Request: fold
Amino acid sequence: MSKKKYICTYFDFNYLPRGLALFYSIKKFHHDFELFVLTFDEQSYSYLENLHEENLRLIASEKYNSYFNTSVDRYPDKKQYFFSATPNLCSYLFDIDPAIDILLYLDADVYLFNSLDALYEEFGDSSIGITEHRVNPILKLFVKHYGKYVIGVNLFRNSEVGLKCLKEWKNECSSWYPGKAGYPLKFFSDQIFLDSWETRYSEVKIIKNIGINTSYWNAANYTFRKINDEYFVDDQPLILYHFSSLRKENDTTWNTYSIYGLVSIKNILLEIYTSYIKHIESFGLNNKKWEKIKQGDSLKKKLAHFILNFFINEKVIIK
Reply:
């Protein structure tokens, strides 16, 4: 499959190392692609501009804010402002570049371990591509407020259905405000709106490949193996791992927060995390600062974490 791939993401300077790792992981497996990056600060824009990478196309935050008449001040939490950008960025790119036929959105903390061709092949002639959380049955009792589908890997076609979905998703995100009646969460999330897509739109493809959008919240379902230097999830090649919530605690210790997925980081999964961490550390940038949604963990959740910590390893030590 040699067709050009159009991919987009966004991040600020705090996530720049992860964005760089994403870019170079794409470049490892693909040559004919463009990665559009919405940079949320001048530091990120200048750093990426100075790389002179022909596959990178940058969008400054000032241009984005002006185009959508938005700003970080509209949201009580910076990360909520970031989340609101997902449908905006995709819509914007279709507006400015009619050559884009299929747009793949990836979170900045997603990382390729294999070619994307299998993802595009499964997407086929669909207009919208989404992935399920695929959490194990026990976790389903506790994660209902996160929705059935997960942002991180999404596909949109430049078609009537694809553009309609993005427009309506954008409007849903734009009309949110703190305390909005009927909104089920205390914080803003673009993710819960995806729950209705399968019934609202035709041509929706739910990506079933377990090697795509694999993460700590579904890793307990699978066996991770390494064969001839290639990682596998059960019998499927690992294509995209989503390193969500990964946090650097000190100079040598990283917390994967995999305890919330009831999965222990060990053996091959530990190797997968270690290789990714070493890559983002290789850029020599600060990985310690962390933006977290202000959800407020309950006493029950903190107690469960304390108890599970005796049985589950969620830490990665880099020597």
The chain has a mean pLDDT of 90.
